[in-house]
DNA sequence: CTTAACTGCGTAGGACATACGCAATACGGG
DNA sequence: CCCGTATTGCGTATGTCCTACGCAGTTAAG
Protein backbone atom coordinates (compact mmCIF):
# COMPACT_ATOMS: atom_id res chain seq x y z
CA UNK A 1 0.00 0.00 0.00
CA UNK A 2 2.72 2.44 0.95
CA UNK A 3 4.65 1.24 -2.05
CA UNK A 4 1.92 2.49 -4.36
CA UNK A 5 2.43 6.03 -3.20
CA UNK A 6 4.02 8.36 -5.72
CA UNK A 7 7.66 8.88 -4.89
CA UNK A 8 7.10 12.60 -4.48
CA UNK A 9 4.63 12.09 -1.65
CA UNK A 10 6.84 9.58 0.09
CA UNK A 11 9.69 12.04 0.22
CA UNK A 12 7.39 14.86 1.30
CA UNK A 13 6.05 12.94 4.25
CA UNK A 14 9.36 11.44 5.23
CA UNK A 15 8.25 7.91 4.44
CA UNK A 16 11.25 7.31 2.22
CA UNK A 17 13.82 5.03 3.85
CA UNK A 18 17.38 6.18 4.16
CA UNK A 19 19.60 3.12 3.65
CA UNK A 20 23.09 4.34 4.44
CA UNK A 21 25.36 2.72 1.92
CA UNK A 22 27.59 4.27 -0.68
CA UNK A 23 29.45 7.58 -0.58
CA UNK A 24 28.52 10.47 1.67
CA UNK A 25 26.15 12.72 -0.18
CA UNK A 26 27.65 16.16 -0.68
CA UNK A 27 24.31 17.42 -1.96
CA UNK A 28 21.12 17.37 0.05
CA UNK A 29 17.52 17.83 -0.95
CA UNK A 30 17.17 20.66 1.53
CA UNK A 31 20.06 22.57 0.06
CA UNK A 32 18.78 22.05 -3.47
CA UNK A 33 15.29 23.22 -2.62
CA UNK A 34 16.51 26.20 -0.61
CA UNK A 35 18.78 27.35 -3.42
CA UNK A 36 16.06 26.86 -6.00
CA UNK A 37 13.70 29.02 -3.95
CA UNK A 38 16.42 31.63 -3.69
CA UNK A 39 16.82 31.77 -7.45
CA UNK A 40 13.09 31.88 -8.11
CA UNK A 41 12.61 34.63 -5.53
CA UNK A 42 15.36 36.76 -6.92
CA UNK A 43 15.13 36.27 -10.67
CA UNK A 44 11.73 34.71 -11.29
CA UNK A 45 10.61 31.24 -12.15
CA UNK A 46 11.76 31.53 -15.74
CA UNK A 47 15.33 32.00 -14.55
CA UNK A 48 15.26 28.73 -12.63
CA UNK A 49 16.84 26.10 -14.85
CA UNK A 50 18.49 22.92 -13.71
CA UNK A 51 21.74 24.18 -15.19
CA UNK A 52 21.66 27.47 -13.33
CA UNK A 53 20.67 25.75 -10.13
CA UNK A 54 23.56 23.32 -10.45
CA UNK A 55 25.96 26.16 -11.14
CA UNK A 56 24.82 27.96 -7.99
CA UNK A 57 25.26 24.76 -6.02
CA UNK A 58 28.66 24.04 -7.48
CA UNK A 59 27.75 20.69 -8.95
CA UNK A 60 26.96 19.24 -12.35
CA UNK A 61 23.41 19.57 -13.67
CA UNK A 62 22.81 15.84 -13.72
CA UNK A 63 23.74 15.49 -10.08
CA UNK A 64 20.47 17.09 -9.12
CA UNK A 65 18.55 14.16 -10.53
CA UNK A 66 19.83 11.91 -7.77
CA UNK A 67 17.72 13.90 -5.32
CA UNK A 68 14.86 15.06 -7.46
CA UNK A 69 12.97 12.96 -9.98
CA UNK A 70 12.46 15.86 -12.37
CA UNK A 71 11.87 19.58 -12.44
CA UNK A 72 8.17 19.28 -11.66
CA UNK A 73 8.97 17.41 -8.49
CA UNK A 74 11.44 20.10 -7.55
CA UNK A 75 8.66 22.66 -7.92
CA UNK A 76 6.42 20.63 -5.64
CA UNK A 77 9.15 20.53 -3.00
CA UNK A 78 9.66 24.26 -3.37
CA UNK A 79 5.95 24.90 -2.91
CA UNK A 80 6.00 22.75 0.17
CA UNK A 81 8.92 24.58 1.76
CA UNK A 82 8.50 28.21 0.74
CA UNK A 83 5.36 29.08 2.78
CA UNK A 84 7.02 28.16 6.07
CA UNK A 85 4.96 27.91 9.21
CA UNK A 86 1.51 29.48 9.20
CA UNK A 87 1.07 32.36 11.67
CA UNK A 88 -0.36 32.06 15.13
CA UNK A 89 -3.89 33.40 15.09
CA UNK A 90 -5.38 35.92 17.51
CA UNK A 91 -8.59 34.91 19.27
CA UNK A 92 -11.86 35.47 17.46
CA UNK A 93 -12.70 34.08 14.05
CA UNK A 94 -12.72 37.45 12.34
CA UNK A 95 -9.27 38.60 13.39
CA UNK A 96 -8.09 35.05 12.99
CA UNK A 97 -9.11 34.66 9.38
CA UNK A 98 -7.93 38.18 8.53
CA UNK A 99 -4.52 37.47 10.04
CA UNK A 100 -4.32 34.20 8.19
CA UNK A 101 -5.25 35.73 4.84
CA UNK A 102 -2.82 38.63 5.24
CA UNK A 103 -0.01 36.26 6.14
CA UNK A 104 -0.79 34.11 3.13
CA UNK A 105 -0.72 37.17 0.93
CA UNK A 106 2.63 38.07 2.43
CA UNK A 107 4.00 34.68 1.51
CA UNK A 108 2.82 35.11 -2.06
CA UNK A 109 4.42 38.52 -2.29
CA UNK A 110 7.69 37.05 -1.06
CA UNK A 111 7.48 34.09 -3.45
CA UNK A 112 5.46 35.23 -6.48
CA UNK A 113 6.55 32.18 -8.48
CA UNK A 114 4.19 30.06 -6.37
CA UNK A 115 1.37 31.57 -8.40
CA UNK A 116 2.93 30.40 -11.65
CA UNK A 117 3.85 26.93 -10.48
CA UNK A 118 0.56 25.18 -11.06
CA UNK A 119 0.02 22.30 -8.73
CA UNK A 120 -1.53 19.81 -11.12
CA UNK A 121 -3.39 18.15 -8.27
CA UNK A 122 -5.12 19.05 -5.01
CA UNK A 123 -2.75 20.00 -2.20
CA UNK A 124 -1.16 17.04 -0.45
CA UNK A 125 2.05 18.65 0.73
CA UNK A 126 2.46 18.97 4.49
CA UNK A 127 3.46 22.61 4.08
CA UNK A 128 0.22 23.44 2.27
CA UNK A 129 -1.91 21.37 4.61
CA UNK A 130 -0.44 23.15 7.63
CA UNK A 131 -1.74 26.43 6.26
CA UNK A 132 -5.12 24.94 5.44
CA UNK A 133 -5.30 23.54 8.95
CA UNK A 134 -4.49 26.90 10.50
CA UNK A 135 -7.11 28.62 8.38
CA UNK A 136 -9.76 26.15 9.47
CA UNK A 137 -8.71 26.66 13.08
CA UNK A 138 -9.86 30.26 12.84
CA UNK A 139 -13.46 29.01 12.80
CA UNK A 140 -12.95 26.80 15.83
CA UNK A 141 -15.51 28.52 18.03
CA UNK A 142 -18.14 29.22 15.40
CA UNK A 143 -21.33 27.29 14.71
CA UNK A 144 -20.37 26.83 11.07
CA UNK A 145 -20.34 23.37 9.55
CA UNK A 146 -17.00 21.92 8.59
CA UNK A 147 -17.92 22.11 4.95
CA UNK A 148 -18.77 25.78 5.29
CA UNK A 149 -15.47 26.39 7.06
CA UNK A 150 -13.54 24.81 4.24
CA UNK A 151 -15.37 26.79 1.58
CA UNK A 152 -14.87 30.06 3.43
CA UNK A 153 -11.18 29.49 4.06
CA UNK A 154 -10.80 28.79 0.36
CA UNK A 155 -12.67 32.00 -0.46
CA UNK A 156 -10.19 33.98 1.64
CA UNK A 157 -7.37 32.12 -0.05
CA UNK A 158 -8.73 33.06 -3.45
CA UNK A 159 -8.73 36.73 -2.51
CA UNK A 160 -5.14 36.59 -1.35
CA UNK A 161 -3.98 34.63 -4.38
CA UNK A 162 -5.87 36.79 -6.84
CA UNK A 163 -4.64 40.08 -5.51
CA UNK A 164 -1.08 38.83 -5.16
CA UNK A 165 -1.20 37.53 -8.70
CA UNK A 166 -2.03 40.92 -10.13
CA UNK A 167 0.27 42.87 -7.86
CA UNK A 168 3.28 40.63 -7.87
CA UNK A 169 3.13 40.81 -11.63
CA UNK A 170 2.85 44.58 -11.42
CA UNK A 171 5.93 44.83 -9.25
CA UNK A 172 8.06 42.73 -11.53
CA UNK A 173 6.67 44.20 -14.74
CA UNK A 174 8.45 46.63 -17.01
CA UNK A 175 8.16 49.98 -15.25
CA UNK A 176 7.76 52.03 -18.41
CA UNK A 177 4.44 50.40 -19.21
CA UNK A 178 3.34 50.05 -15.62
CA UNK A 179 4.13 53.60 -14.64
CA UNK A 180 1.64 55.42 -16.83
CA UNK A 181 -0.98 52.73 -16.78
CA UNK A 182 -3.61 55.36 -16.12
CA UNK A 183 -2.46 57.40 -19.10
CA UNK A 184 -2.60 54.42 -21.42
CA UNK A 185 -6.01 53.47 -20.10
CA UNK A 186 -7.34 56.98 -20.60
CA UNK A 187 -6.05 56.94 -24.13
CA UNK A 188 -7.78 53.77 -25.21
CA UNK A 189 -10.91 53.74 -23.12
CA UNK A 190 -13.62 55.80 -24.72
CA UNK A 191 -17.05 56.38 -23.24
CA UNK A 192 -18.85 54.87 -26.22
CA UNK A 193 -16.99 51.58 -26.05
CA UNK A 194 -16.46 51.19 -22.31
CA UNK A 195 -18.97 53.47 -20.61
CA UNK A 196 -18.63 52.28 -17.03
CA UNK A 197 -14.87 52.01 -17.21
CA UNK A 198 -14.54 55.46 -18.76
CA UNK A 199 -16.61 56.90 -15.97
CA UNK A 200 -14.43 55.27 -13.33
CA UNK A 201 -11.29 56.51 -15.01
CA UNK A 202 -12.68 60.04 -15.25
CA UNK A 203 -13.42 59.81 -11.55
CA UNK A 204 -9.77 59.03 -10.89
CA UNK A 205 -10.43 55.52 -9.59
CA UNK A 206 -7.33 54.21 -11.32
CA UNK A 207 -4.92 56.88 -10.19
CA UNK A 208 -2.76 56.64 -7.11
CA UNK A 209 -0.65 53.72 -6.22
CA UNK A 210 -2.65 51.55 -3.89
CA UNK A 211 -3.95 48.82 -6.12
CA UNK A 212 -3.72 46.40 -3.23
CA UNK A 213 -6.84 48.00 -1.83
CA UNK A 214 -8.86 45.37 -3.61
CA UNK A 215 -7.56 42.77 -1.18
CA UNK A 216 -8.48 44.61 2.00
CA UNK A 217 -11.79 45.84 0.60
CA UNK A 218 -12.76 42.40 -0.65
CA UNK A 219 -11.66 40.77 2.58
CA UNK A 220 -13.64 43.22 4.70
CA UNK A 221 -16.80 42.55 2.68
CA UNK A 222 -16.26 38.81 2.83
CA UNK A 223 -15.81 38.96 6.60
CA UNK A 224 -18.98 41.03 6.92
CA UNK A 225 -20.84 38.44 4.92
CA UNK A 226 -19.48 35.63 7.08
CA UNK A 227 -20.47 37.52 10.20
CA UNK A 228 -24.02 37.68 8.92
CA UNK A 229 -24.04 33.93 8.46
CA UNK A 230 -22.56 33.28 11.89
CA UNK A 231 -24.99 35.52 13.76
CA UNK A 232 -27.85 33.95 11.84
CA UNK A 233 -26.69 30.51 12.95
CA UNK A 234 -25.93 31.59 16.48
CA UNK A 235 -29.22 33.32 17.14
CA UNK B 1 3.44 59.55 -29.43
CA UNK B 2 1.59 56.69 -31.04
CA UNK B 3 4.92 55.46 -32.35
CA UNK B 4 6.11 54.91 -28.80
CA UNK B 5 3.38 52.38 -28.19
CA UNK B 6 4.51 48.78 -27.95
CA UNK B 7 3.77 46.93 -31.14
CA UNK B 8 1.55 44.50 -29.27
CA UNK B 9 -0.81 47.24 -28.12
CA UNK B 10 -0.97 48.80 -31.56
CA UNK B 11 -2.12 45.55 -33.08
CA UNK B 12 -4.56 44.91 -30.25
CA UNK B 13 -6.27 48.24 -30.71
CA UNK B 14 -6.20 48.18 -34.47
CA UNK B 15 -3.85 51.15 -34.69
CA UNK B 16 -1.42 49.26 -36.91
CA UNK B 17 -1.57 50.49 -40.49
CA UNK B 18 -2.16 47.99 -43.24
CA UNK B 19 -0.11 49.14 -46.24
CA UNK B 20 -1.21 46.81 -49.00
CA UNK B 21 1.90 45.96 -50.94
CA UNK B 22 3.48 42.59 -51.48
CA UNK B 23 1.85 39.19 -51.84
CA UNK B 24 -1.56 38.27 -50.53
CA UNK B 25 -1.16 36.89 -47.03
CA UNK B 26 -2.32 33.29 -46.82
CA UNK B 27 -2.02 33.41 -43.05
CA UNK B 28 -3.93 35.80 -40.86
CA UNK B 29 -3.50 36.78 -37.23
CA UNK B 30 -7.08 35.77 -36.51
CA UNK B 31 -6.56 32.30 -37.85
CA UNK B 32 -3.30 31.89 -35.95
CA UNK B 33 -4.81 33.03 -32.67
CA UNK B 34 -7.95 30.92 -33.11
CA UNK B 35 -5.93 27.79 -33.83
CA UNK B 36 -3.60 28.46 -30.92
CA UNK B 37 -6.58 28.78 -28.59
CA UNK B 38 -7.94 25.52 -29.97
CA UNK B 39 -4.71 23.69 -29.20
CA UNK B 40 -4.40 25.17 -25.72
CA UNK B 41 -8.02 24.33 -24.93
CA UNK B 42 -7.71 20.75 -26.07
CA UNK B 43 -4.21 19.75 -25.00
CA UNK B 44 -3.11 22.37 -22.50
CA UNK B 45 -0.72 25.25 -22.66
CA UNK B 46 2.33 23.01 -22.53
CA UNK B 47 1.26 21.39 -25.79
CA UNK B 48 1.19 24.72 -27.59
CA UNK B 49 4.48 25.10 -29.40
CA UNK B 50 5.16 27.22 -32.42
CA UNK B 51 6.03 24.07 -34.33
CA UNK B 52 2.79 22.31 -33.49
CA UNK B 53 0.80 25.41 -34.22
CA UNK B 54 2.42 25.76 -37.62
CA UNK B 55 1.77 22.12 -38.38
CA UNK B 56 -1.91 22.53 -37.55
CA UNK B 57 -2.03 25.60 -39.78
CA UNK B 58 -0.20 23.91 -42.63
CA UNK B 59 2.65 26.37 -42.74
CA UNK B 60 6.28 26.49 -41.67
CA UNK B 61 7.05 27.42 -38.07
CA UNK B 62 8.89 30.58 -39.01
CA UNK B 63 5.97 31.87 -41.03
CA UNK B 64 4.15 32.61 -37.79
CA UNK B 65 6.69 35.25 -36.89
CA UNK B 66 5.47 37.49 -39.69
CA UNK B 67 2.23 37.95 -37.77
CA UNK B 68 3.38 37.57 -34.19
CA UNK B 69 6.50 39.11 -32.68
CA UNK B 70 7.13 36.13 -30.40
CA UNK B 71 5.33 33.53 -28.37
CA UNK B 72 4.58 35.88 -25.49
CA UNK B 73 2.79 38.24 -27.84
CA UNK B 74 0.79 35.33 -29.17
CA UNK B 75 -0.30 34.54 -25.62
CA UNK B 76 -1.41 38.13 -25.13
CA UNK B 77 -3.49 37.95 -28.29
CA UNK B 78 -4.98 34.67 -27.13
CA UNK B 79 -5.90 36.16 -23.79
CA UNK B 80 -7.53 39.05 -25.55
CA UNK B 81 -9.64 36.86 -27.82
CA UNK B 82 -10.57 33.84 -25.71
CA UNK B 83 -12.93 35.52 -23.23
CA UNK B 84 -15.25 36.73 -25.98
CA UNK B 85 -17.99 39.21 -25.19
CA UNK B 86 -18.95 39.70 -21.56
CA UNK B 87 -22.51 38.65 -20.75
CA UNK B 88 -25.51 40.97 -20.64
CA UNK B 89 -26.33 41.66 -17.02
CA UNK B 90 -29.76 41.41 -15.41
CA UNK B 91 -31.02 44.47 -13.52
CA UNK B 92 -29.93 44.91 -9.93
CA UNK B 93 -26.32 45.04 -8.80
CA UNK B 94 -26.48 41.75 -6.93
CA UNK B 95 -27.75 39.59 -9.77
CA UNK B 96 -25.58 41.60 -12.11
CA UNK B 97 -22.32 40.95 -10.32
CA UNK B 98 -23.22 37.31 -9.70
CA UNK B 99 -23.99 36.79 -13.38
CA UNK B 100 -20.75 38.47 -14.32
CA UNK B 101 -18.65 36.41 -11.94
CA UNK B 102 -20.26 33.13 -13.00
CA UNK B 103 -19.71 33.94 -16.66
CA UNK B 104 -16.10 34.79 -15.97
CA UNK B 105 -15.68 31.51 -14.17
CA UNK B 106 -17.22 29.76 -17.15
CA UNK B 107 -14.66 31.34 -19.45
CA UNK B 108 -11.85 30.16 -17.21
CA UNK B 109 -13.22 26.63 -17.16
CA UNK B 110 -13.38 26.66 -20.95
CA UNK B 111 -9.86 28.09 -21.27
CA UNK B 112 -7.91 26.98 -18.21
CA UNK B 113 -4.62 27.99 -19.80
CA UNK B 114 -5.54 31.64 -19.19
CA UNK B 115 -4.68 31.04 -15.55
CA UNK B 116 -1.20 29.87 -16.44
CA UNK B 117 -0.43 32.57 -18.96
CA UNK B 118 0.73 35.31 -16.65
CA UNK B 119 0.02 38.75 -17.95
CA UNK B 120 3.26 40.47 -16.99
CA UNK B 121 1.48 43.81 -16.83
CA UNK B 122 -1.88 45.28 -15.91
CA UNK B 123 -4.66 44.53 -18.39
CA UNK B 124 -4.65 46.74 -21.45
CA UNK B 125 -6.27 44.40 -23.94
CA UNK B 126 -9.66 45.45 -25.26
CA UNK B 127 -11.01 41.98 -24.55
CA UNK B 128 -10.06 42.19 -20.87
CA UNK B 129 -11.20 45.78 -20.52
CA UNK B 130 -14.61 44.90 -21.96
CA UNK B 131 -15.10 42.45 -19.11
CA UNK B 132 -13.87 44.94 -16.55
CA UNK B 133 -16.26 47.51 -17.96
CA UNK B 134 -19.19 45.13 -17.78
CA UNK B 135 -18.38 44.24 -14.20
CA UNK B 136 -18.27 47.89 -13.20
CA UNK B 137 -21.58 48.43 -14.95
CA UNK B 138 -23.22 46.09 -12.44
CA UNK B 139 -22.79 48.83 -9.82
CA UNK B 140 -24.31 51.51 -12.02
CA UNK B 141 -27.25 52.33 -9.76
CA UNK B 142 -25.45 52.00 -6.43
CA UNK B 143 -24.11 54.77 -4.21
CA UNK B 144 -20.65 53.20 -4.18
CA UNK B 145 -17.64 55.26 -5.15
CA UNK B 146 -15.88 54.37 -8.36
CA UNK B 147 -12.86 53.20 -6.43
CA UNK B 148 -15.02 50.93 -4.32
CA UNK B 149 -16.65 49.54 -7.44
CA UNK B 150 -13.30 48.70 -8.94
CA UNK B 151 -12.07 46.99 -5.79
CA UNK B 152 -15.25 44.94 -5.45
CA UNK B 153 -15.29 43.84 -9.06
CA UNK B 154 -11.71 42.71 -8.59
CA UNK B 155 -12.67 40.81 -5.46
CA UNK B 156 -15.32 38.90 -7.42
CA UNK B 157 -12.77 38.28 -10.12
CA UNK B 158 -10.35 36.85 -7.58
CA UNK B 159 -12.97 34.39 -6.37
CA UNK B 160 -13.69 33.20 -9.89
CA UNK B 161 -10.03 32.94 -10.81
CA UNK B 162 -9.06 31.22 -7.59
CA UNK B 163 -11.74 28.60 -7.73
CA UNK B 164 -11.23 27.96 -11.43
CA UNK B 165 -7.51 27.61 -10.84
CA UNK B 166 -7.98 24.81 -8.35
CA UNK B 167 -10.77 23.08 -10.21
CA UNK B 168 -9.52 23.37 -13.73
CA UNK B 169 -6.33 21.80 -12.48
CA UNK B 170 -8.32 19.09 -10.78
CA UNK B 171 -10.17 18.25 -13.96
CA UNK B 172 -7.01 17.93 -16.02
CA UNK B 173 -5.03 16.18 -13.29
CA UNK B 174 -4.13 12.55 -13.19
CA UNK B 175 -7.31 10.77 -12.10
CA UNK B 176 -5.57 8.12 -9.99
CA UNK B 177 -4.31 10.69 -7.54
CA UNK B 178 -7.35 12.91 -7.79
CA UNK B 179 -9.90 10.15 -7.30
CA UNK B 180 -9.05 9.10 -3.78
CA UNK B 181 -7.95 12.49 -2.59
CA UNK B 182 -9.97 12.02 0.56
CA UNK B 183 -8.31 8.67 1.25
CA UNK B 184 -4.84 10.12 0.84
CA UNK B 185 -5.73 13.05 3.05
CA UNK B 186 -7.10 10.78 5.76
CA UNK B 187 -3.92 8.78 5.63
CA UNK B 188 -1.54 11.63 6.18
CA UNK B 189 -3.54 14.03 8.29
CA UNK B 190 -3.32 13.14 11.95
CA UNK B 191 -5.10 14.96 14.73
CA UNK B 192 -1.89 15.82 16.54
CA UNK B 193 -0.29 17.47 13.57
CA UNK B 194 -3.32 19.05 11.86
CA UNK B 195 -6.08 19.21 14.47
CA UNK B 196 -8.60 21.40 12.66
CA UNK B 197 -8.07 19.69 9.35
CA UNK B 198 -8.39 16.24 10.87
CA UNK B 199 -11.66 17.27 12.46
CA UNK B 200 -13.02 18.50 9.14
CA UNK B 201 -11.97 15.33 7.41
CA UNK B 202 -13.58 13.18 10.10
CA UNK B 203 -16.73 15.21 9.56
CA UNK B 204 -16.70 14.27 5.89
CA UNK B 205 -16.18 17.84 4.69
CA UNK B 206 -13.81 16.65 1.97
CA UNK B 207 -15.94 13.85 0.61
CA UNK B 208 -18.36 14.21 -2.25
CA UNK B 209 -17.58 15.81 -5.53
CA UNK B 210 -18.66 19.41 -5.32
CA UNK B 211 -15.45 21.25 -4.65
CA UNK B 212 -16.79 24.17 -6.66
CA UNK B 213 -18.98 25.03 -3.70
CA UNK B 214 -16.27 27.34 -2.50
CA UNK B 215 -17.01 29.68 -5.37
CA UNK B 216 -20.74 29.98 -4.74
CA UNK B 217 -20.34 30.10 -0.97
CA UNK B 218 -17.63 32.74 -1.16
CA UNK B 219 -19.56 34.76 -3.70
CA UNK B 220 -22.74 34.68 -1.61
CA UNK B 221 -20.83 35.93 1.45
CA UNK B 222 -19.11 38.63 -0.57
CA UNK B 223 -22.44 39.80 -1.98
CA UNK B 224 -23.91 39.88 1.51
CA UNK B 225 -21.03 42.00 2.67
CA UNK B 226 -21.44 44.37 -0.25
CA UNK B 227 -25.14 44.63 0.47
CA UNK B 228 -24.33 45.78 3.98
CA UNK B 229 -22.09 48.49 2.60
CA UNK B 230 -24.67 49.63 0.07
CA UNK B 231 -27.54 49.83 2.52
CA UNK B 232 -25.29 51.68 4.95
CA UNK B 233 -24.49 54.21 2.24
CA UNK B 234 -28.05 54.44 1.00
CA UNK B 235 -29.68 55.00 4.35
C1' DC C 1 8.97 48.25 -66.31
C1' DT C 2 11.24 49.32 -62.33
C1' DT C 3 11.28 49.59 -57.56
C1' DA C 4 10.14 48.87 -53.04
C1' DA C 5 7.58 46.58 -49.69
C1' DC C 6 5.94 42.55 -47.93
C1' DT C 7 5.21 37.38 -47.42
C1' DG C 8 6.63 32.67 -46.57
C1' DC C 9 10.19 29.97 -45.03
C1' DG C 10 14.99 27.26 -44.78
C1' DT C 11 18.93 27.19 -41.93
C1' DA C 12 21.12 27.36 -37.87
C1' DG C 13 22.19 28.45 -33.08
C1' DG C 14 21.43 28.41 -28.31
C1' DA C 15 18.88 27.04 -24.15
C1' DC C 16 16.69 23.48 -21.87
C1' DA C 17 15.15 18.91 -19.62
C1' DT C 18 16.67 14.53 -19.07
C1' DA C 19 17.68 9.18 -20.42
C1' DC C 20 21.61 6.24 -19.95
C1' DG C 21 25.57 4.43 -18.25
C1' DC C 22 30.15 4.57 -15.95
C1' DA C 23 33.47 5.36 -12.25
C1' DA C 24 34.24 6.26 -7.54
C1' DT C 25 32.77 5.52 -2.80
C1' DA C 26 31.61 3.45 1.59
C1' DC C 27 28.99 0.23 4.34
C1' DG C 28 27.60 -4.84 5.73
C1' DG C 29 28.37 -9.57 5.87
C1' DG C 30 31.55 -13.28 5.69
C1' DC D 1 40.12 -7.73 6.63
C1' DC D 2 37.93 -8.09 2.15
C1' DC D 3 34.49 -8.46 -1.22
C1' DG D 4 29.91 -7.55 -3.03
C1' DT D 5 26.61 -4.16 -3.50
C1' DA D 6 24.03 -0.12 -3.06
C1' DT D 7 24.58 4.65 -3.81
C1' DT D 8 26.49 9.07 -5.40
C1' DG D 9 28.23 12.36 -8.76
C1' DC D 10 28.39 13.32 -13.38
C1' DG D 11 29.83 13.15 -18.73
C1' DT D 12 27.61 12.30 -22.96
C1' DA D 13 24.01 12.60 -25.99
C1' DT D 14 19.19 13.23 -27.64
C1' DG D 15 15.11 15.58 -28.52
C1' DT D 16 12.40 19.69 -28.05
C1' DC D 17 11.97 24.37 -27.78
C1' DC D 18 12.21 29.50 -29.39
C1' DT D 19 13.86 32.49 -32.63
C1' DA D 20 17.74 35.55 -35.25
C1' DC D 21 18.96 36.03 -39.91
C1' DG D 22 18.58 36.29 -44.52
C1' DC D 23 16.91 34.84 -49.15
C1' DA D 24 13.51 34.28 -52.79
C1' DG D 25 9.17 34.93 -54.65
C1' DT D 26 5.02 38.17 -55.10
C1' DT D 27 2.43 42.26 -55.70
C1' DA D 28 1.21 47.15 -55.85
C1' DA D 29 2.90 51.98 -56.82
C1' DG D 30 5.17 55.28 -59.71
Keywords:
homodimer; 235 residues; mainly alpha; Arc Repressor Mutant, subunit A; Tetracycline Repressor, domain 2; 2 domains; 11 helices; 60% helix; flat; DNA-binding
Structural description of this entry:
The structure is a homodimer of 235-residue chains. Chain A has 235 residues and is mostly helical. The first copy, chain A, has two domains: 2-81, Arc Repressor Mutant, subunit A; 93-172 and 205-234, Tetracycline Repressor, domain 2 (Orthogonal Bundle). Helices cover 60% and strands 0% of the residues of chain A. The first copy, chain A, is built from eleven helices and no strands. The radius of gyration of chain A is 22 Å and the shape is flat. The interface between A and B is large, with 74 and 75 residues. Chain A binds a DNA duplex (30 and 30 nucleotides) through residues 19-27, 49-51, 59-63, 65-66, 70-71.
Which strand-content bin applies to the residues of chain A? under 5%
Characterize the overall form of chain A.
flat
Distance between the termini of chain A: 48 Å
Compute the gyration radius of chain A: what is it?
22 Å
From the 3D coordinates, which CATH architecture of the largest domain in chain A would you assign? Orthogonal Bundle
Question: Most extensive interface: pair and counts?
Answer: A-B, 74 and 75 residues
Average pLDDT across residues of chain A?
Answer: 91
Q: What name goes with the CATH superfamily of the largest domain in chain A?
A: Tetracycline Repressor, domain 2
Amino acid sequence: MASELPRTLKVLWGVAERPARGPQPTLSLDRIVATAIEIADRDGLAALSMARLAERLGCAPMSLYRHVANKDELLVFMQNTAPGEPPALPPGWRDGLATWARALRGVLYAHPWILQATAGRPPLEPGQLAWLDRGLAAFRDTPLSHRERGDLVLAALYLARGEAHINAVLLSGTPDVTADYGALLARFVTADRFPALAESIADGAFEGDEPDNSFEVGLARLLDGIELLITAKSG
